[in-house]
Each structure stands twice: as C-alpha cells, then as structure tokens.
Prior knowledge:
By secondary structure, the protein is mainly α. It has six helices and no strands. Helices cover 50% and strands 0% of the residues.
Amino acid sequence: MDAPVKMGLCPGSCSFKRASDAVPSQGREKTRDMAPQDSLSHSIFRQVGYLTPMSENFQPEPAQAEPPERPARQAMFRGLRLKCPNCGSGPLMRSYLKVRDHCPVCGEELYHHRADDGPAYLTILITGHIIAPLIFFVFFTFRPDPLVMAVGFTIGFVAIALFMLPRLKGMFVGLQWAKRMHGFGRSNDIAGG
Length: 193
Ligand SMILES: [Zn+2]
C-alpha cells in the first residue's frame, strides 16, 4: 500500500478508510481500487454520520429463523369443523368435549389447549342471541300456548347449545394453536415444523 491512508472516523481496528483521507493525487485511484461493497458501506456510513467499530473478519449475524406463520382464521375454521388445526384432516376430539392429546394423522400435540370457560361463554352468548329474537317473533306472531313455547324453546336452546359447544371449543383450540399459546408449537418450532 503505497499511498498513506489515514483511518476514518472508525475507532479500533476498522478496515474502512475514507477515500477523502488519502493524499489528493492518489485519492481517485484509491476510490477506484475499492471494492464496490466497500464504497456502498462508506456511503451508508456517511449518511448515518458515524462509523461503527468493525474488524477485518466482520460478518453480519445471520437473521434469527422466524417460526413459520400459522394462519389463525384457517386454524379456527378447522377447529370449528372439529378437525386438527395443523393438518385439517385428523379428528380433534376423542369424545364429545375431550380434545385428543395428539392428532392421529399428523401427530401434532393438542394437549396444550386451555379453552376453559371460553366455549361455554360463547355458546351462551351466540345461542341467546339466536333464541331471544325468535321468542319475540314466535310469541307476537303465533301466540302459542306458554307451555308449548317453554318446552319448545328449551329443547331448541339445549339442542343448539349442545351442537355449538364442541365446535366453539375446537375454534378456541385452533386459535390457541395458531397463536402458540400455552406451549403450542414449542416442540415443533425447534424441529422446524
Ligand atoms: Zn393433524
């Protein structure tokens, strides 16, 4: 290196040298000799306003591998159909309301779910909003016998609630799986799944 080149703003053992610090007559040649990425780095550092300490062997850290995205809507819809939120084909439940520990098709862990009272709350909320307007409509339109109304709507309410409860629980499990709540996805992320 024949041209006396001063160090730039970078402290320490930085390899970047400003072309403007070189001797004026040698300056242009020095700029030409620089690798394209060095010129690019210099322009970026000049814009930022400072140089950071770097060594000759500086390597940018590889980006942390992001776990694969899990579409929440698709997982919740699969749960509504009582299917595994991961593969969409394995059955989610082993009995009326018992969620399987693992999916029999893809082996996905399902025992992490914590649906708790959520499905029951949603079932009452939705069924109530279906039944309440229906009661008004039937009463004011047909004026049926109160006993008939009470029995009919009780059976109707229970039937709708029993139909919706496991499906809403499946939806909750799907949401928790998609959002990696309560340990969902911990082992799969390590395995890369
Ligand atoms: Zn599955």
